[in-house]
Amino acid sequence: MPEPVKLNSPLSEAPSVRSPQRTIITVILLGLLVTFIALVFTVWQLSQAPKMWQDAATLEVTPGMSVRDIAAAAKANNLVRSEGLLFFVLSYFHDPTRIFAGQYLFITPATVLAVAEKLAASTIESDTIALTFPEGIRVRDMATIAARTLDSFSTIDYLALTSGKEGRLFPETYFVPRDYSAEALVELQETTFADTIEVLRVNYPSIDIDQAVIIASILEREANDAISMGLVAGIFNNRLAIGMPLQADATIEYTIETPLGELPPGELARKLREFDSPYNSYLNRGLPPTAIGNPGLQALQAAFAPTPSDYFYYITGNDGNFYYAETFDEHNQNINRHLR
Fold it and tell me: How many domains does the chain have?
């Protein structure tokens, strides 16, 4: 009699074999996890303070330096292990425009995050002080601010050293020792100005520096932002090209040493007609003999690269906006509409 056939039961099945596709996915996931852990560890290592730390380290930031330049300088001064990581942190987690020129002192080892925070917050050590010169300021007013801020500053020495240098002492927030001398300050301002001009000249090698500085110093008082500075600089060039006087009120203000807004009604017109001075840009054609203040970067950029237009006239309306005109009739219309 034939034996009965045994039927397979689920319990008697052979062990299942892991599919190749599932194995590959597992390997990939494990590889990604290992890579991520290694990346995090590497970034963490690079973010730590350098091992070979000296007693103190400084970082000199000058106008015109890009974030990448600052990061490279920090690496060169052994402040950070990775300039790329510092560049990333400054660019994506801070406002680079808040990084002021000056010397930053680091007494203790600092992580990349701490270095970036100090730079972006313009944090200084107790033995330095912030010395701020606003754009367009005159030399004499710089001396007043410095004397009020620094402990042993000599106004007489500063004015003697800066004689004839109006326009070439860069206005900036400098971080300097409290006992900074007049000689050291003049050297710092002149060096900063030269460095700024050198950066600008890269794209405009044939520019007349003296003319650009004078125009920029006038722009500081005649315009109020990058757009208006560019357009007014173009208007000045248009006027100079046809021999038309600049007719800039700011040069009169420099001559009479009185803010125009403080003059009684009607006195401005009399001053413009009667005050005989090479700085009277209503009576004289061309540029005044010197700058009328010390321009900042924005005004210098506008003077180096004026915005071309067919305009010859401009006013600042009662609403604070600028209005431009090609003809004198259009200019009078703007006056009637926006100043009266």
Answer: 3
